[in-house]
Design a protein that fits this description.
Elements lengths: L8 H20 L16 H10 L7 H15 L6 H17 L2 H26 L5 H81 L3 H29 L17 H11 L5 E7 L9 H21 L3 E10 L2 E9 L13 H13 L2 E8 L5 E10 L8
Parallel strand pairs: 1-2
Antiparallel strand pairs: 2-3, 3-5, 4-5
Helix pairs in contact: 1-2, 1-4, 2-3, 2-4, 3-4, 4-5, 4-6, 5-6, 6-7, 6-9, 6-10, 8-9, 9-10
Length: 398
């Protein structure tokens, strides 16, 4: 509340220079008017002192400075006058518009314009001489002109501030977009890494555990063959993925994107991996329509089946693992079910990342997914993953 007691250094400079200039004009006997009611030259120093003092608060209390400056310049008209008093008043008028409240910035130019018009008309009616227009012009130069100048400068300042804020907001939005893009890309990479490698590593973990507990050389040899096959395929997938992530690796070749037509090979491989766990994998393609499916939907369907088979290999009780593919109307249905319950023998730990990845993939396409234990109608509890994905190009991702 006492900020007006600490004037800006530029305002102090203006006040000091104005006061010294006015004193110099007074000492040289340069006055703006002749005979006046208070014709003693020293009296003209009083309005000069007032406007010089309130020039100190032209920035911190502009409206207060304008009020007292107006009183001082009116009082100056009853003395021999000092040019610096009028100049400092015009600066107070300018500062009141530039640094004052928005309401004052709107009101002052209108008020000074009306005063200029009123003075012009009044002096014309009084003197009945065209030279009276000079009084109106002088009034406009002293009051209306600095007010309009203040409006112009304030508008430019506000426009520059608005442009700066827009630039900051644009930069902030760009940074948010970049962060979201990085996060989305990291999530995509995590899903791809999990889907490409988790199946092979799970098979290796389960079969290596089984190999350690089996004394039959023939069975151990078969298990080691499965381990080798999965380790080689997993290593190849890892190399391809790392090659794609290295922008400088020109020799990296992306693997072909999985499709629905390659589900047979995936399920056959899962059956081979599940040979020692008591799981049997079956595939039913019950699609009523065989039309083309968008590539993102094919990839997501493949990954859902792949992850569900991996989870069955790690957690399902011995029994059938059924994969069913259906299509009716605008939706493609992917369903994978396995026996829900504990099983003896080797198991691989799970982290839950696979289910998260499946839900993220389905959400990106605007589909729905359910995963959890259900009753198959015959009293057997099964773990079922069921996803419905839009197959119309216009609906994918909505």
């Amino acid at each position: 509340m006492f900020s007006f007691l600490r004037p800006h250094r530029h305002d102090v400079l203006i006040a000091v220079i104005g006061l010294l200039s006015g004193l110099l004009l007074w000492a040289l006997g340069l006055h703006t008017q002749g005979s006046r009611p208070f014709s003693a030259p020293w009296v003209s120093l009083l309005p000069l002192a007032v406007v010089s003092v309130f020039a100190l608060v032209r920035r911190t209390a502009p409206q207060v400075g304008l009020i007292f400056g107006t009183l001082a310049v009116v009082a100056d008209q009853f003395t021999v006058g000092n040019m610096v008093t009028v100049v400092l008043f015009t600066d107070l008028m300018y500062a009141a518009v530039l640094y004052g409240t928005p309401a004052a910035a709107r009101r002052i130019p209108v008020t000074t314009f009306l005063i200029t018009v009123a003075v012009t008309i009044g002096f014309l009616a009084w003197f009945r001489n065209p030279q009276a227009l000079l009084v109106g012009i002088l009034t406009g130069v002293v009051s209306f002109a600095p007010a309009i100048t203040g409006v112009s400068v304030r508008n430019h300042r506000d426009a520059a501030e608005a442009a700066r804020l827009r630039a900051e907001q644009t930069a902030l939005l760009a940074e948010m977009d970049r962060t979201q893009a990085v996060t989305a890309e990291r999530s995509r990479m995590a899903r791809e890494l999990h889907d490409l490698v988790a199946n092979h590593l799970s098979a290796i973990a389960i079969h290596s555990t089984a190999a350690l507990s089996i004394d039959d050389p023939a069975t151990s040899r078969e298990v080691l063959g499965v381990i080798r096959e999965n380790s080689v395929e997993g290593l190849a997938e890892m190399r391809r993925l790392i090659g794609l992530l290295r922008t400088g690796d020109a020799d990296a070749e992306p693997s072909a994107s999985p499709t629905l037509d390659t589900l047979d090979a995936l399920i056959e491989q899962a059956g081979t991996n599940a040979g020692t766990t008591g799981l049997t994998c079956t595939f039913e393609d019950a699609r009523e329509e065989r039309g083309p499916v968008p590539a993102p939907v094919e990839l997501t369907s493949y990954r859902i089946v792949q992850e569900s088979l991996t989870n069955a290999l790690k957690h399902a009780a011995p029994g059938p693992v059924a994969v069913r593919l259906g299509r009716a109307g605008p939706s493609l249905t992917v369903e994978v079910s396995s026996v829900f319950g504990d099983r003896s023998g080797p198991r691989a730990p799970g982290s839950g990342a696979g289910l998260v990845g499946m839900r993220e993939r389905v959400a990106l396409l605007g589909g729905t997914i359910e995963a959890g234990p259900v009753d198959d109608g015959s009293g057997t509890r099964i773990w079922r993953v069921r996803a419905e994905l839009p197959v119309d190009e216009g609906n994918v991702g909505e």
